UniProtKB/TrEMBL annotation:
Gene3D superfamilies: 3.60.21.10. One of its GO terms (biological process) is RNA decapping. This is Calcineurin-like phosphoesterase domain-containing protein. It comes from Paramagnetospirillum kuznetsovii. It comes from the Bacteria.
Amino acid sequence: MDRIYAIGDVHGCAEQLDALLRQIHLHAAGAGIDRPKVVCLGDYIDRGPDSKGVLDILTGPKMDQFEPVFLLGNHDLVLVGVCEGGLPSWDWVSEHGGQKCMDSFGHFPARNFKLSIKHFRQAIPPAHKAFLAALKASVSHRYGPWFFSHAGVNPNRALDQQTAMPMIYGDIDMFQHDHDALAPNLRERLGACVVHGHFVSRSKQVDVHPHRICVDTGAGYPGGKLSAVALFNDGRVEVLT
């Protein structure tokens, strides 16, 4: 296979995800690829209107058309904790889109926060819980000249020496060479181009640099959209939105 696809942060935008998966399948079919390899970069939930719908798609028969790799995002990690019996912070509900996630599963009045979370946990289907539990062991993926993680890497460490924290939450040092001549050197030193999400690009467009590609174009935010990239073994990048 001469290419791999990567989908940016979905954030509860089920209709956009469904449309983008159809586009990826048609794009691959045009090259004679029946079951394309697709890396989903995490943050499947929160902010957008239908987190449950997104998880229904990702755990449903539509994904049989693909060879999927699902990576863990920081928002997903909160829901993993909920499924394991934990209590999320109120900030997750009130400021980070968690209420939208809960609303997509049902109505859970907030008069008693602990009780609401308990009922929410009970409403999450077993297939979703199994999907989320499996994400805990999936924070990165390597394919040819491409290295995938939700939020990037620590650029001061070799790729085989990365820890989970920068790959889930990000490292601002990753951006230090975006606009200078050292970016190709950083890619050479890392041995791959890092493909990530997490940081919404200011232009709401896929952000392409020699050493990194950010595929988070603001799905779930006002004016944002869901994007993907087709990444070729020869280093070419094609944007799909």
